[in-house]
Every structure is written in structure tokens, then in C-alpha cells.
């Protein structure tokens, strides 16, 4: 078991008063999501839209990467209704037990849940496609700033089957995988110590993972050409 300095984590958390950094349109969008969550809004085809742990489908490769980086503390950024302490994530194990984590924190603005703090790893699944495009860079930068070692992100690159109450598609920022790769590449160099594993899904349960990389690898490379 990895030992964690709980006092240090608490100090970092209390010293970081964070707010949503987004445009007026982004705030309007969050109000819509908040209303959907509070009123248990369920579009006809959305199913358990706010409650499913989408990471379950990727649990084996995620656990492998978390172990590779000796991750003890994790922040689920855009956690929805995910419960890391509920048995049954894999067999009888909870998600926290399955991943070998000491502490898990969650950030879900639609539920007014904000436990953002500096952790070993930040995990973000199925959030960025719900962020207004003008606010994507600030959101990605926020995730990087919270991670000491690792950032794992999955984003959907296809329209959702569900519709927002205003009639728009629930996936408001649909972009191809290389667009997302460029977004992360442009910010990764600002946080060279943080490794990034970007997974893009061109269709539901159809994911393409880019090779894990970090800005530090680029800076330390003997060549100017990078392949990751």
C-alpha cells in the first residue's frame, strides 16, 4: 500500500479556492446540466445518463496505467454519479479497491460537488464533449494543473442520442480525435511533468487511444521531430 501524506493533501486542497473558469454561455450550459441533475431529467434514450461509471468499460487498461505511475490519489473530473465505494465495480470490489487507490476525490459541477485538489492522477471521462468549445482550453488547463503525475482523458467524438431541454444535442462540442490531440499537445508542454493518456471515441464503445506521452519527453528528446 502506498503511503500518502494526508496533511499535505489537505493543505493543498484548502489552499486552492477554485471556481468555474468559463464564458457566460458556458455558465448558461452548466445551469442546464445542473437542472437536469437536480430534477433527475432523463431524455428518452439517455438511460442512466448521470449515474453510470463509464470507466468500467476501460477498467483493465486504466488499472495498468495507474499502477505504472504508482497512483495513490485520484480526482474524477466530471464524475457524474460515480461511486468509488460501491461494491460490484469488478466482482465484489469497489472501484477504489480495484484501482488500488488510497483516496478518490470528485468534481461534478452539475451536482455542485467540488473536491478539486492536487492529486497523483486526474481522470476525466465523457466530460469535454459537454463543455462549450470556447471553454475547452481553460478546462483542460485546469485538469493539468491538478495532476502531479498523470492525466487520463476520454472524450466522445460523436453526437449523443440524448437531447438537452433546449432541443440541442447533449454532445455540444463534437470534434475529431486529432483536434483533441492538438488541444492537449498545445497545453501539455506547460505541464511537462504530467503524462497524458488521451482516448477518443468516434462511436459508443469504440475507442482509439493515443500513445501515452508527456511534454518532458519532447523537451528531453535528442531530436526535434516527435512521434507521440
Structural category: alpha/beta
Give me the Rg, rounded: 17 Å
The domain count comes to 1
What is the architecture at the second tier of CATH? Answer: 3-Layer(aba) Sandwich
Helical amount among residues, as a percent range?
Answer: 25-40%
Walkthrough of the structure:
- This protein is an alpha/beta fold and 228 residues long.
- It is built from 7 helices and 8 strands; from the N terminus they run αααβαβββαβαβββα.
- 30% of the residues lie in helices and 20% in strands.
- Strands 1, 2, 3, 4, 5, 6, 7 and 8 form an 8-stranded mixed sheet that branches.
- Helix 5 links the parallel strand 4 and strand 5.
- It is globular, with a radius of gyration of 17 Å.
Question: Mind sketching the topology for me?
Answer:
Blueprint (H helix, E strand, L loop, with lengths): L5 H9 L9 H15 L20 H10 L4 E5 L17 H5 L3 E6 L4 E2 L4 E7 L10 H11 E10 L20 H12 L6 E9 L2 E4 L3 E2 H6 L8
Parallel strand pairs: 1-2, 1-4, 4-5, 5-6
Antiparallel strand pairs: 2-3, 6-7, 6-8
List keywords for this structure.
7 helices; single chain; Rossmann fold; disordered N terminus; eight-stranded mixed beta sheet; globular; 20% strand; alpha/beta; 228 residues
Amino acid at each position: 500500500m502506498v503511503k500518502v501524506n494526508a496533511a499535505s493533501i489537505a493543505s493543498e486542497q484548502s489552499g486552492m479556492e477554485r471556481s468555474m473558469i468559463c464564458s457566460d454561455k458556458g455558465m448558461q450550459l452548466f445551469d442546464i446540466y445542473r437542472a437536469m441533475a437536480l430534477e433527475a431529467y432523463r431524455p428518452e434514450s439517455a438511460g442512466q445518463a448521470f449515474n453510470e461509471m463509464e470507466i468500467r468499460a476501460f477498467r483493465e487498461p486504466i488499472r495498468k496505467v495507474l499502477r505504472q505511475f504508482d497512483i495513490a490519489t485520484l480526482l474524477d473530473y466530471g464524475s457524474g454519479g460515480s461511486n468509488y465505494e460501491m461494491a460490484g465495480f469488478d466482482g465484489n470490489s469497489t472501484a477504489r479497491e480495484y484501482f488500488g487507490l488510497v483516496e478518490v476525490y470528485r468534481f461534478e459541477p452539475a451536482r455542485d460537488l467540488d473536491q478539486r485538489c492536487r492529486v497523483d492522477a486526474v481522470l476525466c471521462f465523457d466530460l469535454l464533449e459537454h463543455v462549450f468549445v470556447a471553454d475547452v482550453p481553460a478546462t483542460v488547463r485546469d485538469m493539468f494543473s491538478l495532476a502531479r503525475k498523470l492525466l487520463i482523458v476520454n472524450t466522445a467524438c460523436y453526437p449523443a442520442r440524448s437531447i438537452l431541454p433546449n432541443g440541442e444535442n447533449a454532445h455540444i462540442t463534437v470534434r475529431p480525435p486529432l483536434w483533441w490531440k492538438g488541444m492537449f499537445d498545445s497545453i501539455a508542454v506547460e505541464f511537462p511533468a504530467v503524462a497524458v493518456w488521451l482516448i477518443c471515441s468516434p462511436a459508443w464503445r469504440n475507442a482509439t487511444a493515443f500513445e501515452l506521452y508527456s511534454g518532458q519527453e519532447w523537451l528531453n528528446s535528442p531530436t526535434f521531430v516527435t512521434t507521440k
